[in-house]
Request: fold
Amino acid sequence: MQNLLEIKNLKVEFHLDNQVITAVSGANLDIKENEVVVLAGESGSGKTITALSICRILPHNAGIVSGSINFAGREMLTLKENELIKIRGRDISYIFQEPVSFLNPVYTIGNQIMEAIRLHQHKNKKEAYEETIELLKKVKIWEGKRVFQSYPHQLSGGMNQRAFIAMSLACQPKLLVADEPTTSLDVTIEAEILELLMELKKSLKFSLLFITHNLSIARKIADRIFVMHKGKVVEEAGREELFKSPEHFHTKELINAYERIGRI
Amino acid sequence: MTNYLIRRLLGIIPLFIGITIISFAIVHLAPGKPTQIEQALNPKVSQEVRLRLEKLYGLDKPLHIQYINWVVQLSKFNFGRSFIDDRPVAEKILERIPVTLAINISSLILIFLIAIPLGVKSAIKAGTAFDHATTVLVFLLFAAPTFWLALLLMQLLSIQLGWLPISGLKSLDFEYFSFGKKILDLAHHLFLPIVVSTLGGFAGLTRYMRSNMIDALKQPYIYTARAKGLSERQVIYKHALRNAVLPVVTIIGLAIPGLLGGSVIFESIFAIPGIGRLFYEAVMSRDYPLIMAEVVLGGVLTMLGNLIADIAYAYVDPRIKYKS
Amino acid sequence: MPMWIRASSIRVKKRSPSHHVTKSPVTKMKKNPYLVIGILIIGLFSLIALLAPLLSPDDPAQIDAGNLLMPPSGAHLLGTDSLGRDLLSRMIYGSRISLIIGVIAVGIAVFLGVILGSLSGFYGRFIDTLIMRFADIMLCFPTFFLILAVVAFLEPSIINIMVIIGLTSWMGPARLIRSEILSLKEREFIQAERAIGASSVRIITRHLIPNAAGPVLVNATLGIAGAILLETGLSFLGLGVQPPIPSWGNILIEAKSTLGIAWWITVFPGLAILITILGFNFIAEGLKKIIG
Reply:
């Protein structure tokens, strides 16, 4: 089966005043269709930057120096901005950590979801509204009308994250990139969101690139796991394989740490 | 939000009392009674007459009684009578308010129309030549005294080019003009004061807008907006701008003390009969009922301005309007 | 505008590697041009003010009936005013007035502000409410109105002006000090220090002053600029520094009546004010950058 997404030798740098910092010095990653790939590693290992590079939504002082990102047969790094816009939110969607910060505080939830719908589909306001309510139902939000009219600060973290997921799935993406979506949520909510994501993946059929530093989540949901350390992908393995026989020393460190805390 | 409103409105009362106390204190704690100063200016006024005047104005009573009397009169909107021409102070003020209001509202509108787009554009093009040029301009306008700018503009536009009248509100034969010509004449005379007032004010707002916009563009929700596939234009003008502009609503209220203070000077330069000039004249002639009234007025207007600013912001920011 | 950099076309500035390098004074200066320019300007003007008697070509009060309203020339570099006095000399002495008034007025404001702000922050509750309410009330008045009202009843003199501006500007520093104290009270390491018995003096000197000094300094610098603007405005209206003592503001009184005849009387004092205020604003910007 051909890969849905293939990242080869990605190198990304940051320019700060007089310094150049290499955030990602060699990332290699691939995802197949309908697969769950976990990108694991500690803070600062470059996981988020790698993920943001796929659609080139990096901070303005970051630059992709070299490498290749191939999505569904197209080389992303040579696409122009106006072509990328058509892919963002439609073929590839993102969800982030701390949904309340990543949602615009001055627009209602409904407004922001409708924006996602009408950006890529020709629907009038009424149709978009109805579709928004349907989407909210899919993420198990039954009080659609109330949530539609609410502002992010009025809802709980879990509620916001579900709404965010609904927004990201509005145009049936082939790839959903989730950057630590449960890290800031309470543990019980975390479990709900993870279950929801896996259910949705099954029913809507998309690939999930899940970024986390939490190996126990990786063990629960991943088909394959990539480990990043200091800007490089240092190991790739199937789920059980990784935990049974880790090869790179950093992977071993991570697994050891978790075993010590008793999480695994 | 209603809680917030109620608390805010209740807070007005002690503020108002404080304003009256300070206004009263300023005038009465100065050495020498107001009537003594009058006597100093006009030596023909004998001791007897002075004592009679004091009795008339209640100046012989103890201070706190004077204060209470004064506040009671204030609540009846009786601001006393001017020392100069014995006309009711309220009347003198009211007839001059429209002009000051007209100039200040016009310049406020202009300031907003110029500063907001300028600030936004500077933020978007941060670091470029445009941004640097704007920053320099803003610094210069900040630093230049408004009355000096007024003088320079007068020199240029009124004297050398003769385009605009030097001072006053109306031409000498204003009464004979047709309605249309009257409007034109007023506009002609008000042009410079409005321009000067605007120049003095838009620098600050531009910088404020710029820094708000830069902050907004750094927020996490901007990543979300881009990830959804919005064009850069939409990201800036739909998502960032709305957040950046919110606090600007408060500036409308907060600009009032600055505008009032500024109007004293430029109304004097341009000989515009507004309340700023009235205050200046009152100070020069030690017309103390008028001075007290204007100080209280200034305080109350500022207080109201702050109140409006806070309420407007609470209304416009959903995080305060709908407390979770 | 964010730049989306494509894989092929990136100009990477290969400068120093990612470890910290101590920078030479020259590099530091280049990185904070505002501070440098500001200090140069104010330093220069302060020097001029200090050395006024030496630098001034003529006696600023010297009336010269034969040379009324002369444009700038070799003899009078900035021209003369309507009494024949040399403008340059008047402006040099005027710099003294403006700077002294500015600095002392702000000194008074900061002194009062620190005291009131500290009382407010340390003792809290009733005293805090009282002082902050007082500040709120004072802030309700347009500063100019307040000052004018007071000046109406006191003779305008240099000392009076300094004191009045000081008395009406303490609210800014007071609030800064108070909020710094309040935030320190909350911070955990202060509670830890108190737990090990550190004295208040130690907390003040090691934590309060370093943290509060920055914002207060910025506030004070801008305050000096504001005070100078206030003084020039007052003097221009005839309610500030009285002639014959020269102040940039009262030199400009003549400007109105000599518009069109003697441009130098309008332009030069105004420029001097502009540059001075600019200098202080630059220093404030530079300080803000250092504080971060």
Summary: The interface with chain A takes residues 219-221, 223-232, 239, 242-243, 246, 317-319, 322, 324 of chain B (CB under 8 Å). DSSP finds 14 helices and no strands in chain B. The radius of gyration of chain B is 24 Å.
